[in-house]
Design goal:
Shape: flat
Structural class: mainly alpha
Strand order of the largest sheet: 1-2-3-4
Number of helices: 28
Number of strands: 4
């Protein structure tokens, strides 16, 4: 990955304005920036020297050993490292090239050592690193065929003792425990690849049970333990595929895991085991699933287990019956039935269920699922039933008004050739919102501005703006009206500048410069360039203590 998958805006959102602005002051304190696998590692000089680790894959995550960072926040030190990375020539690509050179140098050096020198190096590392020792003990046990020792080593890897305080794994220790669980998953894979797949599957099951027992007493805010547990589950599946586990016993284990209320950290997908279970195992799985559902007909886990099994068997009618037994107010279950029937080539039945779903939602006075609306309207349109498609889109917009719903309604009305008469019909309720209706001002009033702008009806948007338009909408209106209504656009830009001068930070200063350039264009259109010069001179004098702002204005010719 050569490019960063995050932007400065992402960093600001993750850190919050305060930490972001404080992080700008630490850009010169970042040192030893380097790539390390999928991570970016650096040090930041603050009150002390802090170590920062960025997991720069999406979404961005950061770790810092400062007090604020240890509480799980994306601190100012993380901000400084992230911004330094974004602004560095070549970004992550250059860092990874440097890392590749380091790796090559290390590999060449290790290759030059004698057997005795390598043994001495490994022994010193064994004395210093218990985790490294556990890994090699496992490999040694596997190599000599000692399955019991290998399983014991895997069990030790998921032992939380070294990471618990008073029986609880805190946030600061979760990553360390997760790393051990991931090593256990790798160990299961190695054991399976050595020809002991059935023993590996048993070891994985033991490890999964242990992690589930531990998980309820752990702070896994970053999801690292659950991800490591997913690695274990994947290793178990692979071991079962490579071996010959008892199908009925495996089916019982799958059901236990799927119905375990404490097992949220491990997701077992029954369908993935279909080939492993075979007819005997699938029959056992169905019997256990039916029994569980009969005991708890409204249980989500029980229902999901049966739905998964029925889907594996390809029994569409039974799957429809399962969904139909628990219909939701917004038609979401109708939608699932619709999609199953559609995929099975039963389009007419699918449309009937979609129509029933819309009627069901209307009876429940609940906005229908948007995908149910889309499916029904699109099917009508393909059949040439443009009036029916328009009705579906209109009903949805009136019940749940939004800009996307308005756009779909507009497209449906245009396809039917009645947009000129349809538009007033849907806009009039929005126009009737008064300034005293606070709820309306922030719901329908704001939406009115959005749809008017989207329609290109800028004049009416300006008329409706007072009391309804929020600052972002006003800026959008201004940008679209610099030549047609320069005075109104200028007022919006100057108000925005006044608001932003109450804030600090380079990102904010660049925004001020952008606004001033737009304001200057308005003055040029109005023929009042002298007024802009006077305004800019006064602004610079008032903001002279913000040296970065003045520098940015100088660079933009302001």
């Amino acid at each position: 990955m050569g490019k960063s998958v995050f932007t400065e805006a992402d960093v600001r959102d993750l850190a919050g304005s305060r930490s972001y602005e404080r992080g700008l002051g630490y850009l010169d304190s970042v040192g030893h920036l380097r790539a390390d696998g999928g991570r970016i590692v650096a040090t930041v000089r603050g009150t002390e020297r802090y170590r920062v680790v960025l997991h720069s894959t999406e979404p961005l995550r950061g770790e810092c050993d400062c007090p604020y960072g240890e509480d799980g926040f994306f601190c100012k030190h993380c901000v400084a490292v992230a911004l330094t990375l974004l602004r560095a020539p070549g970004g992550q690509s250059a860092l990874r090239k440097e890392a590749a050179v380091r790796d090559t140098t290390l590999s060449d050096w290790l290759g030059s050592l004698s057997k005795e020198e390598l043994l001495s190096l490994v022994q010193r590392q064994l004395a210093a690193d218990d985790g490294f020792k556990e890994t090699l003990v496992l490999r040694a046990s596997t190599a000599r065929g000692d399955t019991a020792a290998a399983r014991s080593a895997i069990r030790a890897m998921v032992d939380p003792e070294d990471f618990t305080q008073y029986g609880y794994i805190g946030y600061q220790d979760a990553a360390g425990y997760a790393a051990q669980v991931s090593r256990a998953a790798e160990a299961v894979q190695e054991l399976a690849e050595s020809g002991r797949a059935d023993a590996a599957a048993e070891a994985a099951r033991d490890a999964i049970s242990r992690v589930i027992a531990v998980y309820g007493s752990a702070d896994d805010s970053d999801g690292e333990i659950s991800q490591a547990a997913a690695d274990l589950a994947e290793a178990h599946l692979a071991a079962c595929a490579a071996g010959s586990p008892d199908p009925e016993e495996t089916a019982r284990w799958i059901v236990d895991r799927c119905l375990d209320e404490d097992g949220d950290c491990v997701e077992i997908e029954p369908a993935a085991y279909a080939d492993i279970l075979g007819p005997r195992g699938l029959a056992e799985l169905r019997a256990l699933g039916e029994e569980a559902l009969s005991r708890n007909p409204s249980g989500w886990a029980e229902r999901y287990l049966m739905e998964t099994l029925v889907r594996v068997e390809g029994n569409v009618d039974e799957l429809v019956a399962l969904y139909a037994a628990d219909l939701t107010p917004n038609g979401a279950r109708h939608l699932r039935i619709t999609m199953e029937l559609d995929a099975a080539g039963r389009a007419d039945e699918a449309l009937t269920w979609a129509e029933n779903g819309l009627r069901h939602a209307a009876a429940e006075q609940t906005p229908p699922h948007v995908d149910l609306v889309a499916y029904t309207a699109e099917r009508y349109a393909r059949q040439g039933r443009t009036a029916d498609a328009l009705t579906v889109r209109r009903d949805h917009f009136l019940l749940a008004p939004s800009l996307p719903a308005y756009r779909e309604l507009r497209a449906a009305a245009q396809a039917h050739g009645v947009w000129d008469t349809e538009r007033p019909r849907v806009l009039d309720p929005l126009r009737e919102v008064t300034d005293t209706d606070r709820r309306g001002r922030y719901a329908h009033g704001s939406l009115l501005i959005d749809v008017l702008i989207d329609d290109g009806d800028l004049e009416e948007a300006w008329t409706a703006a007072p009391g309804h338009a929020h600052p972002g909408q006003l800026l959008t209106l201004a940008d679209a009206s610099v030549t047609s209504r320069p005075a109104d656009a200028l007022d919006v830009y100057l108000q925005a500048v006044a608001s932003r001068t109450q804030q600090t930070g380079d990102h904010n200063y660049h925004a001020i410069a952008d606004l001033l350039l737009k304001a200057r264009t308005c003055h040029e259109t109005l023929g009042t360039q002298a007024a802009f010069t006077a305004y800019a001179t006064t602004l610079r004098a008032e903001q002279k203590r913000k040296r970065n702002l003045i520098r940015i204005l100088d660079g933009r010719g302001l």
